Each structure stands twice: as structure tokens, then as C-alpha cells.
Amino acid sequence: MMKSGEKKKTIFIRIIFMTAFVSIMWFAGRLLCLKTIHGSSQCVAMYAQPRDTIDVVMMGSSHMHCDVNPAILWEEYGIAAYDYSAAEQPMWLTYYYLKEFCKYQSPKVVVLDLYSPVKYGDSFDSAWIGENLYNIRFSFNKLKMISTACTAEQINSYFPSFFGYHWRYPDLGEDDFYVATHPDYYIDFKGFTPFYNVTASKGPALGVLDAKRMPKRSEEYLNKIIEYTKDKGIELFLVVNPYPSTKEQEMVYNSIQDMARKKGISYRNFNYDGEEMGLDYTSDYNDESHLNYDGSCKFTSFLGRTLKDSFEIPDRRGDNRYSSWEENAKRKGVFLTNE
């Protein structure tokens, strides 16, 4: 029979072993995790932000982290904003992203991009699952995300996350080790990832009067987001960032606008404001869908004025808790790029 002293020693050794194992796995996760501009960095950087400092969060697809520059919102309006979005993110993942975000922040306004459910319907390209899931911290909320986004056959590729990106060993570089050993590395990053190509783009389909209901699953989760924000006392702002939309897509936006009006939710289709914001379709687009840096600056400035006119958002300039937004503004919002 094991003596009391030996038993205590065994328990102590096990605790030390488990602590070491967890620490090693945590460090390995930070070292190996994806660090891309398509959602992974936006996700991991959210956890580096000072708690309860983000007043406005931009959510949805890449239209948010490519089109909205928080540095301009800060410089011109004192808005502490963050782009918490990922490539082609469907509405059901945005719902769980919102719940994750609210564990750490108490936003006053959620600006929700409607592009993905209108462009892709209830489909979700599996190529972007990793960008949306890998860097979310383990929790029951993440398990719900995985079960909602993945088929049974896909789950093993994304859970646990560590086993999904262990293949990065050969690609590890100096930057990976620096980020892994500096937990505050991302504090000045506010999610914006600019593009600098210039692509002539056609204008959006304006003046469409017909309406077409949005896809069933997307509508279900949009309603969940509406209820969640109401329960939390958060203002929800549904938006269409400026892009060359089609007639069919504008029909769906019309349907969402009708729903928003009935539910008392703020809505704005910025495709109708291109001229006022000075948008040039021959020079302000990176591709057929995303604004380039110049275009994003025009849109963000206009968006900031709209936010200030529509919601009660404090001006945080001069508050020491918001020094990371000041640092971000000094970089003109440019922290990570596609180059």
C-alpha cells in the first residue's frame, strides 16, 4: 500500500507533468498557428486587445477587414473599432464569432456585413474553414462552431486545431518564434489588411425594386444575431459595403432591408453612396469585390460619419487605455498586408 508521503509525491509529479504538457502544447500552438491576412490573424489578435475597449466591431466576410480601416475611424472620429472578420464567413460562423467576441469585449455597435450570405447563399467553401476556425480558443463555443461548419468527415482536420496545422514545421521562420514569445505582438493590429492593386470595376446594380428572400440557413442565423444583440443591449447595424453587386444580389438586399425595417434594425446599402463618398470605380478597387487602400480610406471615412450620426459612440482619443489605437493610427492602419 502506498504511503501518504509517496502518494503526495506522485500527485505532485503528475501535476508538474500536466502543467509542463499544457504549457508545451500552448507554446506549440502559438508557434505553429496560421498567421495569414484572411481571418487567422484577425482572430488571434482579438485576444490581444485590452478588455472592454472595443466600442465598434466590424463582422462578416473579407469585405470588412479589407474595406474598413480602424485607423481612420480613430483619427477622424475617435472610434475604437476592430475588424473581426474572416474570408467568406457564413452567417452561422459570424453568430459564434460574436459570442466569442463578447466574452472579452462589450461593444456598443456591431456592424454586420451581408456579402457572404447574398453572394454564396448557404454554401461555404471548405478552403476557408481553417481561416475561420483554427485560432479560436478552445471552448464549448468553439465546439459549436466546428459542429456547425464541418461535416463529420471534416472534423478531424480542424479539431484539435494543433493537429490541423502541425504540417507547418518545415515552414517555421523567425517571425513565428517572435510572435510565439511576444504575447502582446498583435495589440496594435486592429484587423485591417489593405490591398494595393488597381482594377477597373463596374458599378453596382442600382435602382432594383424587386425583393428575393435570403437563403434559409443564413436567415435563421441572422435572426439569432439580432436576438443576441438585443439581449446584450448592443446596437446592430446591417451593411452592404460598396462593390459591383448584381441585380439578383440587390433583390436579396432589398428583402433584408424590409426585414430590418420591421424589426427596428439599422440598415444601410453603401452601394448607393458611392458618388457622395467620392468612390472611383476605375481606380479604387483591388479586384471585382474588394476596395484597395485608397478606396477603403474613402469608404471608412464615410462609414465613420454614418456611425457617429446614427449611434452614441464615445470619442476615446486622449484616453491612455487606447494607446494601441494611437499606435495603429501612426501606421495608417497598416500592420499586416498581402505583400
List keywords for this structure.
alpha/beta; 5-stranded parallel β-sheet; 339 residues; Rossmann fold
Q: What spatial order of strands do you see in the largest sheet?
A: 2-1-3-4-5
Calculate the mean pLDDT score and round it. 85
H/E series: HHEHHEHEHHHHHHHEHEHH
What helical percentage do the residues reach? Answer: 40-55%
Question: What can you tell me about this protein's structure?
Answer:
The protein is α/β, with parallel strands linked by helices. It has a domain at 52-124 and 190-330: SGNH hydrolase (Rossmann fold). The chain has 15 helices and 5 strands. It has a 5-stranded parallel beta sheet with strand order 2-1-3-4-5, with helices on both faces. The radius of gyration is 21 Å and the shape is globular.
List the helices and strands and how they pair.
Blueprint: H1 4-32, H2 40-46, E1 56-60, H3 62-67, H4 70-77, E2 81-85, H5 91-101, E3 109-113, H6 115-120, H7 129-133, H8 140-149, H9 155-158, H10 161-164, H11 174-181, H12 216-232, E4 235-240, H13 247-263, E5 266-269, H14 293-310, H15 323-330
Parallel strand pairs: 1-2, 1-3, 3-4, 4-5
Helix pairs in contact: 1-11, 4-14, 4-15, 5-8, 5-12
Brief synopsis:
The protein has helices at residues 4-32, 40-46, 62-67, 70-77, 91-101, 115-120, 129-133, 140-149, 155-158, 161-164, 174-181, 216-232, 247-263, 293-310, 323-330; strands at residues 56-60, 81-85, 109-113, 235-240, 266-269.
